[in-house]
Specification:
InterPro entries: BHMT-like, HCY_dom, HCY_dom_sf, Hcy_S-methyltransferase
Number of helices: 13
Radius of gyration: 18 Å
Protein name: Hcy-binding domain-containing protein
Strand order of the largest sheet: 1-10-7-6-5-4-3-2
Distance between the termini: 25 Å
Cofactor: Zn(2+)
Keywords: Metal-binding, Methyltransferase, Transferase, Zinc
Organism: Selenomonas noxia F0398
Mean pLDDT: 93
Shape: globular
């Protein structure tokens, strides 16, 4: 039994944290950089830890490291040595672990310890060209496997509880990640979440059903789902995934606002996450949180609902 199964045996919903980069921006830190939120690992590690701590205080059962866009290649392009780049990758996990230690020092001893997930962003996040939302990489499965393998090994050495293989735009990248986990003999449970363009397809057009069907037989996949997706599509996506697998479904969609890349602004109205959580749980989700533009207040709403449901 992996740690997700253990937690779900005693609680109905695992509450994930919310957005990281947009939360850094809300606190005055610019992520307008090829490294995006990973820039904060060397410029403002204190702020990284503070964001993790605020999500824990809001009720998150899992905090995810600031390694989504962190790669050895990316750090070395900024002038860091290979050893320094590896240390920064591991620092992303350790900052989340430090925040957890600080949180637990505030809480009763009998409270379950929150989990730390190491974020594994897609190849497109490293490219910083928007291809993480298209999946149109000029790279085959072998290239993607090699790209992910070393980063996975470095992050795993920091001993996170989980691996969050997230915002995957294509099934070939999920296949590559599974190959990389096996090549490096990494035994840490991983969830696989896809960015989706509608209620039936992931970003490159592959049916989400095909992704769930393939991952259903993959022992490394502890949960399957979606993130960085419009909330309007989530219920139907959950139902489709549930038809293909009995593994836990993980969902952490965007706020509901839309991003205009031309002027780098957000428009529209945010989702009422407290209300949406009820629908997503009813559809079959067991791990629920938020992605872009969500904040500790949204996670607090999810947590309050989950705790009330457990009473």
């Amino acid at each position: 039994m992996n740690v997700i199964e253990e937690r779900l045996a005693v609680q109905d919903v695992i509450v994930l944290d919310g957005a990281f980069a947009t939360e850094l921006e809300a606190r005055g830190f610019s992520v307008n950089d090829a490294l995006w939120s990973a820039k904060a690992l060397f410029e403002r590690p204190d702020l990284v830890r503070d964001v993790h701590l605020d999500y824990l205080r809001a009720g998150a059962d899992v905090v995810t490291s600031a390694s989504y866009q962190a790669t050895a290649e990316g750090f070395q392009k900024r002038g860091f040595t290979a050893e320094e780049a590896e240390a920064l990758l591991q620092k992303s996990v350790r900052l989340a672990q430090e925040a957890r230690d600080m949180y637990m020092a505030e809480r009763p001893a009998e409270e379950p310890e929150p989990l730390v997930a190491a974020s594994i962003g897609p190849y497109g996040a490293y490219l910083a060209d928007g291809s993480e939302y298209r999946g149109d990489y000029d790279a085959d499965e072998d290239v993607l496997t090699a790209f992910h393998a070393e980063r996975l090994a470095v992050l795993a050495a920091a001993r996170p509880d989980l691996l969050a293989c997230e915002t995957l735009p294509c099934l070939v990248e999920a296949r590559a990640l599974v190959r990389a986990l096996r090549e490096k003999e990494i035994r840490i449970p991983a969830w696989f979440s896809f960015s989706c363009r509608d209620a039936a397809h992931i970003s490159d057009g592959t049916p989400i059903a095909a992704c769930a069907h393939w991952l259903n037989s993959v022992p490394e996949a502890a949960a399957i789902g979606l993130n960085c997706t419009s909330p309007q599509y989530v219920e139907e996506l959950i139902r489709t995934i549930r038809r293909e697998t009995e593994k836990p479904v993980v969902v952490y969609p965007n706020s509901g606002e839309s991003y205009d890349a031309s002027d780098k602004t957000w428009h529209g109205a945010a989702e009422d996450f407290a209300a949406a959580t009820r629908r997503w749980r009813a559809a079959g989700a067991r791990l629920i949180g938020g992605c872009c533009r969500t904040a500790p207040r949204d996670i607090a709403a999810i947590s309050a609902w989950a705790k009330k449901r457990a009473e």
